[in-house]
Design a protein that fits this description.
Blueprint lengths: L14 E4 L6 E4 L1 H9 L10 H4 L5 H12 L5 H9 L4 H9 L24 E3 L3 E3 L4 E3 L4 E2 L3 E2 L6 E6 L2 E6 L3 E3 L1
Antiparallel strand pairs: 1-2, 3-6, 3-10, 4-5, 7-8, 8-9
Protein name: Phosphonoacetate hydrolase
Pfam families: YjdM
GO molecular function, one term: hydrolase activity
Length: 174
């Protein structure tokens, strides 16, 4: 049994943590174990996932993939998730342990296309931006959108250097 965290490599107090739904456990420090159980908050500690996702241990890859998936607003996590390759059986294991709560909210554009975080959309209507004093013009491209996880009709994006909430019925995926 190793005396270091399988994700971040911290030495000292580590405890075995189960990687459901398989009967496998890995040793994690208290910070990593808390992130696995309560969900991670974007911060410097999670940069350790850059190494962990490429581990030769499937259980470590599964935990790293799940933690990256739980950081949808962190651009570095999305990029790392896009680059990462997991064998099909390891990916199935990782997906089996992710709750379906976040999958329940599906964001669709005006044409019914599913929107994802990081997509580029185009405005299909002039939109007056409340409180900002300008109108977002029809045809404006909004890159690298963020999804409002508790509302399928709202996305966020930058228009004229302002971060605004946009209704999905006024955009189309490009």
């Amino acid at each position: 049994m190793s005396n270091s965290c399988a994700l971040c490599g911290a030495t000292g107090a580590v405890a075995p943590t189960a990687v459901a739904p398989q009967d496998v456990s890995v040793d994690l420090c208290t910070a990593c174990a808390a992130g696995v159980t309560d969900g991670p908050q974007d911060g410097p500690h999670w940069q350790c996932l850059h190494e962990a996702i490429w581990s030769t241990e499937p259980a470590v890859q599964v935990l790293a993939w799940r933690l990256l998936k739980a950081l949808p607003e962190a651009p570095w996590a999305r990029d790392l998730l896009d680059m990462a390759y997991l064998e099909p059986d390891v990916l199935a294991w990782a997906e089996a342990g992710v709750s379906d709560a976040e999958e329940a909210v599906v964001h669709r554009d005006s044409n019914g296309s599913v929107l994802s975080a990081g997509d580029t959309v185009v405005l299909i209507k002039d939109l007056p931006v409340k409180g900002a004093g300008f109108t977002a013009k029809r045809g404006t491209s909004v890159r690298n959108i963020s999804l409002v996880m508790d509302n399928p009709e709202h996305i966020e994006g930058r228009v004229e250097s302002q971060r605004i909430v946009i209704l999905t019925k006024f955009v189309k995926k490009s």
